[in-house]
Design goal:
This protein is of the alpha/beta class and 910 residues long. It is built from 33 helices and 33 strands. The radius of gyration is 47 Å and the shape is elongated.
Length: 910
């Protein structure tokens, strides 16, 4: 020990002397902090000693300066590691290599930054270790930010949505899992449960955590622990029968480091690891790497350390070379190594640790700049730092443990994601699309199966699915508990059991009644029981409404429903104005306007050729009006003579035929249906009536009427059973009953099926749209599988058979709806005919005007040549021209034609 201290002091003195002289120092000290007897530490020690020896044997690296490696054992302890950092810095180390622990690296980074000494870690993968916080920190291994992106891609590749993570409770475990959670969220997946393993946990502690997780649904485990103690997790899992085909086990690169360090897998260890899929840092094949691998066994014998070769050994070897090259560039420019007092520590000279002996490395910032310029090929591949001083090399292998070997099934690269091709082959290609291009070779999963596990166990016989079922007091046909046998029966139960037959896996389950049986339970409370995990699911007549979908996942609706109004109806006689109801107001207006329009158009087209449309103005007006309305009864005496008039009449009669036949059919229907009537016509009239409204206990109708329609709660009356429905409706609002009841359609159908058709009926249309579904906890895969099963039941007709068996006694009431407006004819129904008729009128008028204008122009031309032919105003003013034209049009067409013929015959022959 004394000899070691003497040599260190000698090196320090020599270094100081050389600094004074301004010459290249003969020795440069660097330090290494790591845990000697750890999986990573053993391999790293061999690699670092070998790297120092190789560098000192090559005079071209440091130009004759020797590299001296000072090592300190941190014993995986932050305090001991911090003390070790002070000790090596007192000895003039210009750079610190390590530590392997992320927790220790956080502490030493503060020390290194304070004394301006670069810290280069070959094994601390915590992604929060960054140059943004620690400007003197460098990382020569792959950050967990890359590894967790790879793990999230792996989970997404196989389609799992929920996972369980096991991680050690330190900075390495917590921060790595935090990054994994963020990456999963980007891929619409999540961590369902976190199993935190305390530092120093016993096997019993681990077993308790695993047993705790075995009672919940997800079966995809991601293990992120230290390689020294991680293998025991799989041994414990095997003892707990958790390495079967129901489970998926994924491991970060700690597993490959642990297994590679063993050299080879024996049967005892490999038995508990069958089917595990893990990640391993990828390094390209090279002659340099092959040479190092071939000499590894000899190196272990030389340094009297037994360890297999893992990726962290490659990183440790490369790290020594990175630091050596940076020191070499530093010495070429500065030539000296110097230290100066730290003013902040100068006043602490009385401390036991003699803090005043700690010096700032004057060349620290310059050495950092040289490290940032690192750019060469090492054992791990191309070495170059990114902006936050991590290796810009996110490459991993994906392996599957089969037998006693780690079988590589593919690669993951930050830009190309998964591929069976090496990242070196893909590095020159553009980024590929994960969903289209990614691929991995087949995997043998735990239990020996090649089929991708579901990753979720819905239930088992030891822990069946706990399903809440409403214990209804009324409408028990839907669902209730049989008091004699305490079994659940009803439409919803039969449908649920039928749907389970189409689910491809067994779902052990038990029904748990919810409610006291004396009144219907509150369905919002039932859904909350599923949300807070009191129940795994809820089966029953549960309406899918907005506030419930925020809490749970629903299956595909198995029945369409919505709120409707049921009210008493009575026999009524037709009133005096019932004949107006077949048409809406718009239809009556359009039809009346059409009669007047047709009369005017026919008068215009017939006036010049038909004597029936000539004579005194009063006569013409009366004839015109009577003509169009007479067509309705086919009693008109006037006939059309012009071709254009006949074309318009043909289209008008066709339109009139369709309208009259539709009117007759609609009126007939109204006169039949209106034998049953109600003062309530729909939800608007019910709200305006200020009468009392009934609703079913436990239904969401209360919140809808009160909150959405703003009906005062004093008007709302809760009713418990169909018998109370009938009694309240017969009493009426004035006698302590209700004017109408608002409830969901299936309940009303069942109620009406037991009533006389002349007593009660559905009024108006359904004014909300929803459905009933089964409720499950968020992201439960059974919700998706049951949705597909319900669709199959609908397609093969079994859904309707179950409905009819329970809800239709003889006949269903779904067609008994009363709606006084249902048979009215709207203008939209005849819009096409009106448009077609209008087009024929437009074309006829266009042709008529074109012919009249042509005759008028000819008449005016001949008038200028030969003098007036008729007594028509000849003034040239604009208004007079129109008057002259209308006077011309008012003349009989036959007279105009005769006039033209006479003028042609009176002209002299040439």
């Amino acid at each position: 020990m004394a000899t070691a201290v003497f040599l260190s002091l000698l090196v320090l003195i020599l270094g100081n002397v050389s600094s004074i002289r301004g010459q290249r120092p003969p020795v440069v000290n660097i330090a290494a902090l790591f845990t000697y007897d750890s999986v990573i530490g053993k391999a790293a020690m061999v690699a670092m000693k070998t790297a120092v020896e190789d560098i000192n044997a090559d005079s071209t690296v440091l130009g004759g300066t020797k590299l001296n490696l000072i090592m300190e054992n941190t014993n995986c302890n932050v305090f001991i590691g911090s003390v070790g950092a002070f000790r090596v810095l007192e000895q003039g180390a210009v750079a610190i290599i390590g530590p392997q622990s992320s927790a220790i690296a956080h502490m030493i980074s503060f020390i290194a930054t304070g004394l301006k000494v670069p810290l280069v870690s070959f094994a601390a993968t915590d992604p929060t270790l960054s140059a943004l916080q620690f400007p003197f920190f460098f990382r020569t291994t792959i950050s967990d930010s890359y590894q967790m992106a790879a793990m999230a891609d792996l989970i997404n590749y196989y389609g799992w949505k929920e996972i369980i993570v096991l991680y050690v409770d330190d900075d390495y475990g917590r921060n790595g899992i935090s990054f994994l959670s963020d990456e999963l969220a980007d891929r619409m997946s999540r961590i369902s449960y976190k199993l935190v393993i305390p530092v120093g946990a016993t096997d019993d502690d681990v077993a308790k955590l695993l047993l705790q997780s075995n009672t919940i649904g997800p079966r995809v485990y991601v293990v992120h622990v230290n390689p020294d103690t991680g293998l025991r997790i799989f041994n414990i899992a095997q003892q707990l029968n958790m390495m079967t085909d129901d489970y998926v086990w994924l491991a970060t690169d700690w597993l490959s480091a642990a297994l590679d360090s063993l050299g080879s897998l024996n049967r005892t260890i490999s038995k508990s690891l069958q089917g595990v899929v893990g990640l391993r840092q990828n390094s390209p094949e090279s002659d340099q790497k092959k040479a190092f691998i071939s000499r590894w066994r000899r190196l272990c014998i030389k340094w009297n350390i037994y360890s297999g070769l893992n990726s962290y050994a490659f990183s440790a070897y490369d790290t020594i070379w990175v630091v050596a090259r940076a020191i070499s560039e530093y010495l070429k420019e500065n030539r000296t190594i110097s230290f100066s007092s730290n003013n902040e520590l100068h006043n602490m000279s009385g401390a036991i640790l003699r803090m005043d002996k700690l010096k700032n490395f004057d060349g620290g910032p310059i050495l950092c700049s040289k490290l940032r310029e690192t750019n060469f090929a090492g054992l791990m591949g191309h070495l170059q730092f990114d902006s936050v001083r991590n290796l810009a090399n996110g490459k991993f292998e994906v392996f599957n443990i089969r037998g006693t070997k780690l079988h590589r099934i593919g690669y993951w690269y930050y830009y190309s994601h998964f591929s069976i091709q090496s990242p070196d082959v893909l590095s020159g290609k553009t980024q590929t699309n994960l969903s289209e291009k990614s691929m991995l070779e087949s995997v043998i999963w735990p239990g020996g199966k090649t089929q991708i596990p579901r990753g979720w166990v819905i239930a088992n016989k030891k822990r069946p699915l706990k399903i809440g079922v409403p214990k209804r007091a009324s409408y028990v046909e839907f669902v209730t508990e049989m008091n004699d046998t305490h079994t659940m029966r009803g439409y919803c139960i039969d449908l649920f059991e039928a749907a389970l037959k189409y689910v491809l896996y067994e779902v052990p389950h038990v029904f748990v009644p919810f409610g006291n049986g004396r009144e219907n339970p509150n369905y919002d409370e039932l859904v909350k029981k599923v949300s807070d995990k009191t129940f795994d699911a809820a089966v029953g007549d549960i309406a899918i409404v907005t506030n419930r979908t925020r809490l749970v996942d629903f299956t595909q609706p198995f029945i369409s429903t919505g709120l409707v109004i049921v009210a008493p109806i009575k026999m009524s006689t037709s009133n005096a104005w019932v004949f107006l109801k077949p048409f809406t107001v718009e239809m009556w207006c359009a039809t009346g306007a059409s009669f007047l329009l047709i009369g005017g158009v026919i008068w215009l087209l017939e006036h010049r050729v038909n004597d029936d449309f000539r004579g005194p103005p009063r006569k013409q007006l009366i004839n015109t009006i009577l003509f169009s309305f007479a067509t309705l009864f086919k009693t008109q005496q006037e006939t059309t003579m012009s071709t254009l008039g006949k074309m318009v009449m043909m289209m008008w009669l066709f339109l009139l035929m369709v309208i009259t036949s539709s009117y007759t059919a609609s009126l007939t229907s109204i006169l039949t249906v209106q034998q049953l009537s109600s003062p309530i016509t729909g939800i608007d009239s019910l709200i305006a009536s200020n009468r009392r409204i009934g609703f079913q206990v436990g239904s969401f109708a209360l919140s809808y009427l009160r909150d959405s329609l703003n009906i005062p709660e004093s008007r709302l009356v809760s009713l418990k059973s169909p018998q109370e429905y009938e009694t309240a409706l017969r009493l009426g609002s004035a006698n302590g009953g209700v004017e109408a009841i608002v409830d969901e359609l299936p309940y009303i159908e069942l109620f009406l099926s037991k009533m006389k058709p002349s007593d009660f009926n559905i009024i108006g249309q359904m004014f909300t749209k929803s459905g009933w579904g089964f409720a499950f906890q968020r992201d439960s895969p059974l919700a998706y599988d049951l949705s597909a099963a319900i669709l199959k039941l609908s397609e093969n007709g079994e859904l309707q058979k179950i409905h009819d068996r329970w809800l239709c006694e003889g006949t269903c009431a779904s067609q008994r709806g009363y709606n006084s407006e249902a048979n009215q004819l709207h203008l939209e129904s005849f819009a096409g005919l009106f448009i077609f008729c209008g087009l024929s009128i437009f074309v006829s008028l266009l042709v008529f005007l074109q012919r009249a204008i042509r005759q008028y122009v000819r008449y005016k031309r001949e008038q200028r040549e030969t003098g007036p032919l008729l007594h028509i105003s000849s003034n040239t003013g604009c208004s007079n021209v129109f008057i002259s034209f209308f006077d011309f049009v008012d003349k009989k067409e036959e007279a105009i034609k005769n006039l033209f013929r006479n003028r042609e015959s009176s002209q002299p022959q040439a």
